## 1
Amino acid sequence: MTLPEKESTVRQQAASNYIPKQPVHIECSIERALDVIGGKWSFLVLRELFGGTMRFGELQRKIVSISPKSLTDTLRHLEENGVLERTAYPTVPVTVEYKLTPKGEDLHQILKEMKLWAAKWCDTGASKP
């Protein structure tokens, strides 16, 4: 296989991450979803990226308690799972932007519902028995 053919195959495989699949048989789907988005910081990164494309520094300022290593690890994990896309621009220093893929955007409604659930059921003012 020639180099252009290999590059074309890699692009086709990457593009297939953005094509939704219709499940024929759902098995352990909650576990699989948590493997993709269940990291400690993933939900906060997603929350910020729902507002649009952001740079690393912007994300770090918005999520104040996250360390640079944790943010890097979370961004890499989400990128590897096709939830976000990383674009590097050849500037000095290199400019890197992150944005959600269609797969990542698809999580928006789910996270909204989780937020509503928390508002309804998670009493932050009451002390625990």
## 2
Amino acid sequence: MKEYIKVGKIVNTHGVKGCLKCIPLTDDMERFDELLYVYTEKDNKKRKIKNVWYRKGLVYLELEDINDMDAAESLRNTFISIYDDQLRELPEGSYYLFDLEGMEVYSDLGEYIGKISEIYQTGANDVYEVKDKNKSYLIPAVKEVIKEVSVKEKKMVIHVIEGLLE
């Protein structure tokens, strides 16, 4: 079964001809240039991308069958998605954020630490919030800490450096 992957959130309209203003949910905003179509979450419709441009960190989309402000407004605060077969191949050691969410985290000594509940993109490096019952830890996504990632097993192994779990 194919899975939808959210690539943007429609936050507003732009103009009177049905253009959508979107927050990209991808590291590479220009990724939208490669897409021929997206799915609108609200009506689960496949829509061809007629035009795309970028301004101030936002993606502006003109989609097939959305030709006026009312049609665009009806999609506000919903998501646009692609199927997983439209994903790019990532280089070794890189992962999609949705693959990491919910992943179980263990120390390199085999101790269970918790599950990744949130991922923060800080600019320098991502930070994973790992929760277990009442405890929450912030784990930096750096080579010194992240030792092994298995998307297939939904498992991550980290090296616990001094002060990391305090």
## 3
Amino acid sequence: METHPDIVDMRMRHEVAERATSTPQGQATGMLAFLTGIYLAASPWITGFNGLSTLAVTNLLVGLAYALLMSGGFGRAYERTHSMAWGACVLGAWTIIAPWVVAGDVSTTKTIVNNVITGAVALILALSASAAARAAESRKTRGMASSYSSGR
């Protein structure tokens, strides 16, 4: 049973993703992204715009979702790391435009500066995680091609 092609493939995917996330760069990206999400969730109370309830709730929900996505909070679905990173990119972009899009007049200097900087950091970290997942996936496919060509 251990030599079944599906089990071997699942094991290889898990090992490749584990190696990608256990590198110092992968761990640093994951931790910084988690902290960015927690900051985004708490930012209305930290920077003092919690009275602007629509943006405060938006930042709270988007920050928690971002932290969960980037920390693997939806389970260790390693084969979905690339998709989760792109989802986090969308959340980072949303954070940047949220002061102008959410209901009410919430585009003050504090909210714009906070959301643009936090959203840009979140977007960069998510793009970094996506690139790392893509690189790990391409290394995996190259490794599989060489193992098939060597007769394994």
